[in-house]
Amino acid sequence: MKWSFAMQNIGNEALPVKRNDSSSLRKALGILGALTGPTASGHGGSLSELSLVLGMNKSTLLRLLEPLRDVQLVEQNRDGRYRLGVMAVTLGGAYLSGLDLREQARPILERLAAKTGETVHLLVYGDGQVTYIEKIAGPSSIQMASRVGDRAPAYCTASGKTFLAYLPSSEFEAVVAAGMPARTPHTITTATRLLDELEAIREAGYAVDDIENELDIRCVSAPVFDHNGHIVAAISASGPETRIHGTIVAAVAHAVRNGADDLSLRLGAPQPLLPVHANIDPEQEATK
User: Fold this and answer.
1) How much is the pTM?
2) Residues 105, 226: Cα–Cα separation, whole Å
3) Contact 237, 120 (CB under 8 A)
4) Architecture of the 2-96 domain
5) Domain limits, the chain
6) Which of 22, 60, 105, 113 is deepest in the core (most CB within 10 A)?
7) Could you tell me where the beta strands, DSSP code E, fall in 127-230?
């Protein structure tokens, strides 16, 4: 492979021994880090800009940039500016493809369950329904009856509405066409109301199942995005309406949003993520 051949050249011929010491490695990684962030032009960084940002003289930079260019971790534009190379994309893709969604989510779900005191779920979407793929029970003596593998309609659940808010409109149309029978007196059963609800979800950055799927149960959910900015999962916190009500809804939403954002960043989602609208401390409000 070209990559292996290039690495051999770096190890054996292209680099003097001095370049293999830890100081040089840290400096080279610093260059990659600087090129990862936004630049003034938006098209990479010039040698002068990198020198200023990193506090290195230009001769040192050139010496370190050469092997990075050899293995295509860095590329040089026609105007002389430097940017991340195609091998950086390859390495990033290899990292992302190795991520297990449940494994990455579990510590986040555990923290969220401990913070809110409620049952927390990780869900995925398919064919107008959401599927529970992970569940962490909160410390309360009253527990949700949900199980990993259970499915629920998208139109009447917080997580389902979260997906419909960020998926292509064809999914919304398919859900409406399949019918939206009432599951409780609070279920949204018309396309117009559901469309208004999805717009509000996009504005707030989270969804609420306001006793729409099960009697006496309220749920809050937020989206999880992948490295392409596409929704791939949703995180939710569910509990009795007697515990999740009033300002506590906003507090739980704040905590769920933070958890979903943490997982999105872990999956390489582009920044900025959705703006946070709830400025309530969940640790104070959720315990009221």
Assistant:
1) 0.67
2) 13
3) yes
4) Orthogonal Bundle (1.10)
5) 2-96, 99-285
6) 105
7) 129-136, 151-153, 207-210, 217-225
